[in-house]
Amino acid sequence: MTRCQTTYLPIRGMLRTKLRKHLYTAALLCATLPAIAQTLPAYPILQASPPALGIRPFPANAQLGILQVLQPPVILLNEKYEQLSPGSRIRGANNMLVMSGALVGQNLLVKYVREPHGLIHEVWILNPAEVQLFAPNTIE
User: 19 and 64 share a domain?
Assistant: First the structure.
């Protein structure tokens, strides 16, 4: 009594055929890729430098303040206790998102926007160029 049946062999052969087709297609693409790349228009390479060197556009209702994160979401903003809204975003000087826990205990000059309920929703930590523009007297 044989326990192993050979009915799977045609399936393996069919898989090999499909694999051969995919390998042939991949080889054909690799052979023609340099020719295709030469026909594409040349696009300028995007600059990887952070926008921290310039002035970012802030909303018209953004206010200037000094932020200190005490214990997220509790913050001290302009020496008053405030709270970050759920889903609030803090952007660093390089415009990348910063977690509020990473800022605990630091005094930072920021621009911020409140949500309709009064919670702080968006915060931008100012870079040196923005500090010179918005608060030149705070530079030590």
Answer: no
Q: Are residues 38 and 85 in the same domain?
A: no
Q: What are the CA-CA distances from residue 18 to residues 21, 25, 50, 138 (Å)?
A: 5, 11, 47, 69
Name the one residue in this structure whose structure tokens are 């530079």. 139
Burial 59-94 (b: 16+ CB within 10 A, else e): eeebeebebebeebeebebeeeebebbeebebbbbe
Closest CA to 91 of 122, 58, 130, 118: 122
Q: Are 104 and 71 in contact (CB under 8 A)?
A: yes
| Inside any domain, residue 126 | yes
pLDDT in tens, 47-59: 444 444 588 999 9
Is the distance from CB of 120 to CB of 75 less than 8 angstroms?
yes
Structural domain harbouring 92: 53-138
Could you give the number of structural domains in the chain? 2
Identify which of 137, 122, 140 has the alpha carbon closest to the alpha carbon of residue 56: 122
- pLDDT beneath 70, residues of the chain: 1-16, 18-19, 22-23, 26-30, 32-33, 35-53, 139-140
